[in-house]
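Section 5.1 Outputs to date
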Amino acid sequence: MVSHPVGLTLLADKVSTGIAFQGVGRLEVGGGNPGRSQQGESYYVGNCYLSMDEADLVSAEMTELVMVSMRNTSGKQVPMHSAGSCGS
């Protein structure tokens, strides 16, 4: 994961400081049945802001894209993907 400071801003009437982040995750799993496997990657970006007075979370957001492929017992590879976003 990589992060960097965003700086100071005014959110919800509170002076806040924030960071932005991004990263990549990788997954490779052998299946429970012989010949089956799963592999994938996860790419994510986001930011979060904390109030300077109380260090409370004021705002946060993260978006993630997940791409997975599964291989069945006959060797056929089936691609799958999903995207999600959350925030406050």
